[in-house]
Amino acid sequence: MKNLTPINEIKIPEPRLEEVYTTRVMEKEIRFKGLKKLLGAADISKAGDRNTNLAPANDMIRESARVILSSLTLQHIYDNPLTDDKGRLDSVVRVGYDIDYEVFQTILSMTLGEVKNHLLRSDGRELKRLGRGLTPVMAAALAKLMDAHELIFIPRKISSPTKARTLIGLPGTLSFRIQPNHPQDNLDAISVMVYTDLSLGMGDCLIGVNPAEGSIETIRAIITHLDKIRRETGAPTQICVLGHVKNQLAALEAGAPIEILFQSFAGTERTLTEEFDVTVEYMDHAYTTMAETGPLRHLARQFMYFETGQGSEMTYRKHNGIDMTTCEALSYGLCRRYDPFMVNSATGFIGPETHLNDIELMVSNLQDNFMGKLLGLPMGVSPSYTLHAETHMEGQQLTAHMAAAAGANFFMDIYLGTDRMLAHFVNSGHDDQTLREVHNRVPAPEFLEWAREKGIFEQAPDGKVCRGPKWGDPKLFCKSDAELQRLLESLPSAPGFENAGPRPVNQIQRTLLLNQAVGREAVHGNLRLNELRSIDFRLLKTLAANRLDHLTHPEFGAKLAKESREALGPENHDIQIVIADGLSAEAIHHNIHDMLAVLEDGLKNRGYSMGQHILVNYGRVKLAECIGDILQPKLIIMLIGERPGGNALASRSMSAYMTYRLVDPKIRKQAAEYSKNPTICYEYTLISNIYAGGLPALEAGSVVVEKVIQILTHKAAGNRLEEVLKKQNANF
Q1: Tens-place pLDDT, residues 453-485
Q2: pLDDT class for 135, splitting at 50, 70, 90?
Q3: Percent helix, strand, coil in the chain (nearest 5)?
Q4: Burial level of 296, CB count in 10 A (0-12/13-18/19+)?
Q5: Radius of gyration in angstroms for the set of CA atoms belonging to the chain, rounded to a whole number
Q6: Cβ distance 423 to 351 under 8 Å?
Q7: Which of 187, 612, 630, 709 has a CA-to-CA distance to 287 between 20 and 30 Å?
Q8: Where are the beta strands (DSSP E) in 83-238?
Q9: Domains in the chain and their CATH numbers?
Q10: What is the C-alpha to C-alpha distance for residues 622 and 627, in angstroms, rounded to an integer?
Q11: Is there a contact between 615 and 650 (Cβ–Cβ < 8 Å)?
Q12: The pLDDT of residue 732
């Protein structure tokens, strides 16, 4: 167990007035006011930084910023900590200053340009030593000075192995996390995806499921099922359910085998607390709890798993004027505090408001791996593309190869690369095996021995590891063909299991990519008002004037246009239903009539008053707060089209966000104390994957009614509601 330095004992300089940095190019003077502006301008231009006016306007501006940055010393970066919007030092920045000061004293006078040269000349041992003396902002600044070759060459020299049941990150190895997500958390579907990917030789670092429904009971059910699979297959690995850390700890307290504890991190305190519902103090508690009571406490050297990814701070407009790469580095400083088993960068997951195209995706993922490994983290990379961005399978695959060459410890592994629950696309088991064969890598040693015994891999006398006779055969883990067939019935979108070398056969790829093409079309569809006339609605507009605005500027879809705002006033109903296209108008057209029929009937029968429904083009989830502030209902139900993913049918998937207004001062105080967010005004509960291939609309209507009753009865939503329900159940 690592000793955590108390936050108030971490040394950090007092904030200074912003310095103006200048240089001349020919006869032109170029100026940058403040270190934040300089850091942003020194990066490649990315959508998220363009949206916040931090990206360089042109190459001359960028190269000028890099020239200035190269001349700054590490001491200068140290002496100018980045502040929040109110000029204060937040907890995430403060944690980043928990460095090895003896190491820092040996390098503080070096300029960033000199440090870059030193990194290129040094071996892995020196890189690890130097990294202990760097703050996250120093790592970010260095990343901005690197070209693609250097972003690959330097981190590949750094080895950061970690140990739970398996030892991952050894030189010559490449590990993978199986991610068998399912839109209904169907345990049979999870089983067949795990069996398939285990048979492909994947899962040596983790089997981890993102639950569609993140309640404590769901987490307990899934983790118990994964534990059963692990025991029955004998696979030497570890298990995790990627629910919220508070619900995972509640499940652990109830006896669930939470072997690896997960949480998403962000690079600013406001994003971490207000959006991700955790604080540094709470994560300290979580780390200590796992060290003292976690199932692997006597076996594992590390037991924490964090996911990050450039852009979350910008998406919520809580980036404190800091660019995406630097925010990402700040999140790595927080990860470093807890000596994690795994850190995964999911850059690209958010979409076009952060990374518009393949080049932005490639460079950002290489930066992530560079910064994380330099700061001593066991980095995994999960280059991800979505159907509403100009990113594609080819860009994602090229990024994965570059990250493998750069020494990433692990990658994701989703069945055929398609996450049917989170609607994005990452590595498949076939991609992962291709990476191993191209880059001459093998699994973690414990897992390789098990896979050889199963016939999944073979090892020649010269040590070369090859695919064995059972590679890619999920029947290996089923008692009979009949059992496999029964499991497959829970995964009707599975296009097949036949392989061509380490790749899926051509027909499977054609099916997958045709499904994606259908999804891309759905993103750009519009609501057809004439087909919705049977619904009694009022039509409102957001600040997004067109689809491009909607996709690339998330804040536009979260605010009403002036004429729509002025047409509304307080109505004080119990419930306001808002219908928005989101990222799939087709999802509304295929679900809304069935959903509303059940929803309206269930809510009216319980005596709740409702305002006239609202229909919005180009709407985002946060629009619920804007509408709630004006109409002042107790609860807003936002029915919105999800971003397409999975098969063609999944392009019709809708979500229901229940947004609870914290009006009662007593309740708001309770919510603030629970979340540690003193400005909290709303709490959210989500029901996702509402469509014919997930949670059918008629059934979803009943589920939402039940959740609404719980929210309004207990005056709580989200994680706080789950805590209330857990205590209530414990009393019976």
Answers
A1: 999 999 988 889 999 999 999 999 999 999 999
A2: very high
A3: 45, 15, 40
A4: buried
A5: 25
A6: no
A7: 187
A8: 162-163, 167-168, 175-178, 206-209
A9: 1-495 (3.20.20.70), 529-730 (3.40.50.11240)
A10: 9
A11: no
A12: 62
